[in-house]
Amino acid sequence: MSAATGTLYGLGVGPGDPELLTLKALRLLKAAPVVAYPAPDHGTSFARAIVAEYLSAEQEEIPIVVPMRVERFPAAAIYDEAAERIGARLAEGRDVAVLCEGDPFFYGSFMYLFERLASRFPTEIVPGVSSVMAASAALKRPLAARNDVLTVIPGPLDDAALGARIEAAEAFAIMKLGRHFPRVKALIETLGLLDRCAYAERVSLPEERLLPLRDVSGDVPYFSMILGYRGTEPAIRGAAFDQEPAR
Amino acid sequence: MSAATGTLYGLGVGPGDPELLTLKALRLLKAAPVVAYPAPDHGTSFARAIVAEYLSAEQEEIPIVVPMRVERFPAAAIYDEAAERIGARLAEGRDVAVLCEGDPFFYGSFMYLFERLASRFPTEIVPGVSSVMAASAALKRPLAARNDVLTVIPGPLDDAALGARIEAAEAFAIMKLGRHFPRVKALIETLGLLDRCAYAERVSLPEERLLPLRDVSGDVPYFSMILGYRGTEPAIRGAAFDQEPAR
């Protein structure tokens, strides 16, 4: 790495509300001469839309076009090509900010750029507000307390794996629902947990939807989540508890 | 709730770096006539310290004093009393912002105020950057990808529960280490996962410490965490995961 090399920034831009950007991400975003972001082949980039009001016409933009319906990798070629374009800017000494929905390292595609570029260029990751915490806030449901185990489970897992993981935790979040939703809901009903679950969709955006899981049917979007709690303690609502030391 | 009632805000202030506050939390914090926060009986409040530069002398402060070093006690009286003081301000029509380290509903004590006040006063939760995501960013280790299951486990769990939970996930974060650290590290070594784990302490603060877990011994503070990965998928782990944490 020469001193003239630019820095690669992975910027978490939060779950959707532009006001859920951190001060740090905003500062680095505004200062970056080059801004890259995932984009669908048709339509607008969600990550870019979140920060659109903070961008300026002087910034070069690099959309990383990932075809909508490609769920399974070999997306390697897409990220190889994106890394090459971004690497060229970094080599010229220009910083590049990569926009990441939610948090960059929490199920984010940024890691595919990271693994291709971080060994060659200075890299900084700015954590962001995750959709899991944003869903908990919007639903007004505490996520985990005291000694609860919290498990985050991708919806595409098969029923056996999903069920086992749900039953190994007090609190759980099931993400990436999309077309898996009806199956996941049926499984949760089988486990007797339907009334201990809530559903959140497009959290923190104007079109946010919040419902008891029991009341949700039909198709749901990819940006949706189930939050559940199966702890047996009076836990979250309890009065006497293992107190965390105050700081 | 009368129209003249104030609003209770649970503000996530992030893991420690004041710049990891969200724009929304900052706006609501500055506008709040009353600011409450957990505080130790001796020394300064960590939550307050994070936002100290944003506070003004006109704001009324309500420290919620939770005795240090007491791990188990009926804390109900403390939160009853705090809820009463905060409720009195809300009833007068004044908004109250409660500062929460990290995220309010992710192992946060805010939920004890929430359960006492949310049925009587308008309440809004502003999610924050969690220390788990901040540790992943600082360590430059992706947390979870694709269909990984991520489990967050409190360190005080006994060995059998800890081991079972670790083995039911691809990625894991062990929090609330403190005095449990030597036992947890020994367990991880027994499971053959020592070299797949990294350690982070006081993440995002100037005194942050990042180390391979193997290199950590002795006492560790409460604000410390182990991140581990036991998944078998190769993709994201090449550069990122099996590498010593970089600074």
TrEMBL record, chains A, B:
Entries under SUPFAM superfamilies matching the protein: Tetrapyrrole methylase (SSF53790)
Record has Transferase as a keyword: yes
Keyword S-adenosyl-L-methionine applies: yes
Domain Tetrapyrrole methylase residues, every copy: 7-211
Pathway: Cofactor biosynthesis; adenosylcobalamin biosynthesis
Keywords (A to Z) from UniProt: Cobalamin biosynthesis, Methyltransferase, S-adenosyl-L-methionine, Transferase
GO BP annotation list: cobalamin biosynthetic process; methylation
EC assignment: 2.1.1.130
Pfam families in the cross-refs: TP_methylase
Protein family per UniProt: Belongs to the precorrin methyltransferase family.
Matches recorded under NCBIfam families: cobI_cbiL
Protein's name in the database: Precorrin-2 C(20)-methyltransferase
Organism lineage string: Bacteria, Pseudomonadati, Pseudomonadota, Alphaproteobacteria, Hyphomicrobiales
